[in-house]
Specification:
The structure is a single chain. By secondary structure, this protein is mostly helical. The protein has helices at residues 14-17, 25-39, 45-53, 59-84, 86-109, 113-123, 126-141, 147-176, 180-205, 222-226, 228-235, 237-249, 251-259, 261-267, 272-300, 302-327, 333-350, 356-363, 368-416, 434-437. 76% of the residues lie in helices and 0% in strands. Helix 12 (237-249) runs antiparallel to helix 18 (356-363) and helix 12 packs across helix 19 (368-416).
C-alpha cells in the first residue's frame, strides 16, 4: 500500500482511518514481533531461574530488580526520543536486549547467581527503549482525534507479543526442543531471532522522517530534555497522578506472572502446558479489546472509560481469575474452562486502561514529550511494582494477600481518576503538523 504526501483528509488511507498511521504501519508489526520474542519467557522464567539457581527465594528479588531497570528505561525511552529521535532509541534498545539476553542465558547455564542477577537487570533496559520509543513516535504523528485508537493499536501489538504470542511460542517450542529445563533454555535462545526480526521489520520498513530527528524544541539543553518529565510532574500534579494510575494499571499482570505459574500449572492440578495455554487465551482477549477500548474512549470519554472499564473492571476480573480456579475441582477439564473464562474477563477489562496513553499528553499539550516520558516510565514501572508487591506481601500473607493488595491499588486508582478529566475534543495548541496532513508525510 502506498500513498503520496498530500494535505487534507483526502490523503488518508484505510489504515489512517482505523487509527494506524499509514507511515508507521511496519513499526506496529515490528513491535508485535519484537515483543513476541521478549514475551517468550514471561510465564516460565520464575520457575526456570529457581531450578537453574537452586533457590526460589532469590527469584522475586531478581525479577523486582529487572522491573527497576524496566522502570528507568521506560522513562529514558521518552526522554531520549525527544533528544535523539525515536528511531535511534529503538536501535539502542535492540542492541541492549540481544547482548544481555545472551549473557543471561550463559549465566544461568554456569549456575552464576550474581551473573544472572546483573545480566537480567541490564537486559531490562532493552525492550522499553524499543517499544516505548515507538509509542512516542506514534504520538508525534497521529491526529489527536484518533489518539486513543492509535494507542489502542500499539497495545494490540505490545500485548500481542508480551505475553500472548510469546507464551504461544513457548507452548509450541518447549516440547519441540525436548521439554523440561533444557527445552526452556533453547526456547529462550530462539526468542532472540524473533527480537531481531522485529527490529529489522521496524528499522527497514518505516520511512517516516519525524522519528529520525530530535523532537524537543531546539532551545532546550540535553539536561532540560532528559529531566523534563520529572520537572513537569512537580509543576503539573495531574501528570504525577496520571503516572500513578498507569503504574497501577498492569502491575497485577506482572505479579500474576510470578505467582500463578506454580499455582495454576502445579498445585491446583493443571500442567505448565495448560497454564501457558490459559495465558495465550487470556491475553488474546486483551489484544482483541485494546483497539476497541481506544475507540470507546475517543467516543465516550477517555476518563470514564479508564475509570469504569479499566480500573473497576480489572479489579473485579482479577478477583475472578484468582478465586474461580480455587473454587472448581482441581485439575478438572471443566474447571480449567471456567478458570480460563475468569482470566479472559480480566484480560478484556484490562484493555479499558488504553486511553491513559491519550490522557497523559492531552493534560499538557505544550509538553507532550515530557508527559509521554512519565507515561512510558509508569508503563515499564508496572513490572517493578508488580514484582515489588509480590516480594513484599507474599512472605507474610501468601498469594491470596498479594491479589488483595493489587485490588487495593485499583481502589486507589479509582479515586485518583477524578483528577484526570480531559476534553478529548479540545483544540491542541501545538498539534503536530501531521494533524494537518493526515499523517501523509514520510509515507512509502
Amino acid at each position: 500500500m502506498t500513498a503520496t504526501a498530500a494535505s487534507g483528509p483526502g490523503a488518508e488511507t484505510r489504515l489512517d482511518r482505523i487509527g494506524i498511521p499509514h507511515s508507521l504501519r511496519w513499526g506496529f508489526l515490528g513491535v508485535l514481533i519484537f515483543m513476541t520474542g521478549n514475551g517468550v519467557e514471561s510465564n516460565f522464567i520464575a520457575p526456570h531461574m529457581a531450578e537453574a539457581l537452586g533457590s526460589n527465594n532469590l527469584v522475586p528479588t531478581i525479577i523486582t530488580m529487572y522491573g527497576v531497570a524496566v522502570l528507568v528505561s521506560s522513562y529514558l525511552s521518552g526522554a531520549l526520543s525527544d533528544l535523539w529521535g525515536p528511531r535511534k532509541v529503538m536501535t539502542l534498545g535492540f542492541a541492549i536486549w540481544v547482548v544481555f539476553e545472551a549473557l543471561f542465558v550463559i549465566s544461568l547455564a554456569a549456575d552464576s547467581t550474581m551473573g544472572a542477577f546483573i545480566t537480567y537487570f541490564l537486559r531490562g533496559f532493552g525492550y522499553p527503549l524499543f517499544a516505548f520509543a515507538f509509542l512516542v513516535w506514534i504520538n508525534a504523528v497521529v491526529p489527536r482525534k484518533r489518539n486513543g485508537t492509535a494507542v489502542g493499536w500499539f497495545y494490540v501489538m505490545f500485548t500481542g507479543g508480551l505475553p500472548t504470542f510469546g507464551s504461544l511460542f513457548a507452548l509450541i517450542f518447549i516440547p519441540v526442543f525436548g521439554g523440561g529445563h533444557g527445552g526452556e533454555t533453547l526456547t529462550m535462545i530462539a526468542s532472540a531471532a524473533l527480537v531481531a526480526a522485529g527490529y529489522l521489520t521496524a528499522v527497514f520498513g518505516v520511512k517516516e522522517k519525524t522519528g529520525t530527528k530530535r523532537l524537543a524544541p531546539a532551545g532546550e539543553s540535553s539536561s532540560q530534555v532528559v529531566l523534563g518529565g520529572i520537572r513537569l510532574s512537580y509543576k503539573q500534579p495531574k501528570i504525577f497522578v496520571g503516572f500513578i494510575v498507569r503504574l497501577i494499571n498492569t502491575a497485577p499482570q506482572y505479579g500474576m506472572f510470578i505467582i500463578l505459574p506454580t499455582i495454576i500449572g502445579g498445585s491446583l492440578g493443571w500442567s505448565q502446558t495448560q497454564w501457558l495455554a490459559m495465558t495465550v487465551i487470556v491475553y488474546a482477549s486483551n489484544i482483541a479489546f485494546n483497539a476497541v477500548f481506544g475507540a470507546i474512549g475517543d467516543k465516550w470519554g477517555w476518563q470514564r472509560t479508564v475509570k469504569w472499564f479499566g480500573v473497576m473492571g480489572s479489579a473485579l476480573g482479577l478477583l475472578l481469575w484468582w478465586y474461580v480456579p480455587h473454587w472448581v475441582e482441581p485439575g478438572s477439564d471443566w474447571g480449567f474452562v471456567l478458570s480460563v473464562i475468569a482470566g479472559v474477563t480480566f484480560g478484556i477489562l484490562l484493555a479499558g486502561f488504553v486511553p491513559m496513553g491519550a490522557i497523559m499528553p492531552a493534560l499538557t499539550p505544550a509538553h507532550k514529550g515530557a508527559a509521554m516520558a512519565m507515561y512510558t516510565t509508569a508503563a515499564g514501572g508496572a513490572a517493578f511494582l508488580g514484582g515489588a508487591v509480590v516480594a513484599a506481601v507474599l512472605p507474610w500473607g501468601g498469594p491470596e494477600a498479594v491479589v488483595w493488595a493489587f485490588v487495593a491499588l485499583y481502589g486507589l486508582a479509582f479515586f485518583l481518576m477524578k483528577f484526570l478529566h480531559v476534553d478529548a475534543d479540545a483544540h491542541d495548541p501545538v498539534a503536530h503538523p501531521a494533524e494537518e496532513t493526515a499523517t501523509a508525510r514520510g509515507r512509502s
